Amino acid sequence: MFAQQILNGLVVGSVYALFALGFTLVFGVQNILNLAHGALFMVGAFVGLYAVTLVDLPLVVALLLSILAAGCIGVLLDFFAFRPLRKRRGGEFPAIMSSIGANLILISIAQQISQAQVSGFPFGTFPIVIYNFLGLRITLQQIAILCCVMLFTTVLLLIIYRTSFGRQARAVAVNERTALLFGVNPSQVYALTFFIAGGLAGAAGFIIGLAFNSVHFLMGEPLLLRGFVVVILGGMGSVVGSLVAGLTLGIIQTMSVFYFSSQISDIIIFSLLFLILLIRPTGFFKGLRQDVRVGRN
Amino acid sequence: MRFFAIYQSLLDVLLINCCVAFSQYVVLRAGVFSLATSGIVSIGAYTGAVLTMRYGLPAWAGLLAGTAFGALVSIILSLPLARLRGAFQAIATISFMQIVVSVTLYAESITSGALGIHNIPKLVSTGTLVVVVAALIWLLSSINASSIGRAFDAIREDETVAVALGISIVKYHTIAFALSGAIAGLAGALLAYNTRAIDPEQFGFGLLVIALATVVLGGRVSVWGPVVGATLLTLLPELIRPLADQRLIVYGALLMIVIIYLPEGIVDTLKARWSRKSAPPQISAG
To answer: ipTM of the assembly?
Structure first.
């Protein structure tokens, strides 16, 4: 039973990691705490849901659509909520306020479109196949989730460390002005970062919506709060950190829900967050910036 | 008199929103990005409600206990927060708020969990609320005029400069936290005695956003900022009825527009403009 809970925790945790990757990317590159990231997650879930239920598209196409849609909303977010502030160099506070405003707007629109109802995917959207492996029960869906997350993370790591855009993004993360001197266009980097972050959130939204078979307009909020825990534990701006922290959080949460209750689980998780902020506010892994200083590639 | 009766409940909401906004205003004024207000309002509300419902204490005792408990929790909270800045303070205090919501949901024997506490006797009338808000305005404006207010201003504008001027950041942050916590606790107890029903979820993200939006809209320096902000945010949806259905979109859009185009808030911007007009023309070099 213990091993089974760890497995379930890993699956949930991998989705938390996927969600937090975009969150930490935006913070690492732009130093923006984007409180509307939960709304992007929710957008992804809704687009996926409508693509499957209304248009009857295959799951893979629906997943790609939710990534695309949430990514585009991410770019719009950057354009309307953060770009005007960047021109003024307002600092952290205005950006957080602006993202709260954007979050309210997105949530409210989703509330009206969905008429505040909790919707689910039709039965059998994802084939229910259960494998028994060393006494563990694992469903095809869980395997698919793990594969998806691994794929997205690998792609993200490749983008950040092996492409020109990745180098530009890391340069902007270190110093925007210096990057500008080297011919990097920061606005373009910011927009693309937001597209990637939104896309990852959208993918996480679609996967969570499908796995728990529940899509509603407030679903982003609890995930945003868990995203905080992941990025603090993993270090703001660290891709590997997010992955490890996400998996850890998933296991802790599944265990505490299983052995205690969901309220106790929340208390444990957020007390843990507090504790980490006290001991080591920069997290346990290096962010994008330190990476650049340490290694060259 | 009939007009007053119709709008009395709206006025109550407005006055309580003012108190909550004052709590948020104090920390922001001192340059602390704490979002703990809604968590402490919850603590104050539950303190007041439990004391009255279980132990039959009168309203003044509940209000006093809510205030004291709020201040105490806030001071304790300020100890770990002293090490953090900016976004990290925001994250820490949001998680504090979430802990409060979870604890109030979990401790059913005291708080009756998700059901909340109902049928609290209505011990706080509109009159009391008016007196409290007036007293808070007086208190905060006299603090603003004192050395504490000037220290807050210096810290908010530039911490490094403030330290160089010999201002103890930790001391003034603790003062700001204590004051903010006391006001939030008081606001919570007032809310419990005035609306007569409280539940844990009521003090989550929603309240936090309203408190922040109020202060950002009104202004973070002048004491009239939160008052103007609360008045606008409470009355706008009532005055323009179609807006009421789109309340959240209006709040969100207002928040974005104000922070982008009017970053100092309404009152502070107007004040700055007015004082510039009345000031003698400045002689510029060259």
So the answer is: 0.84
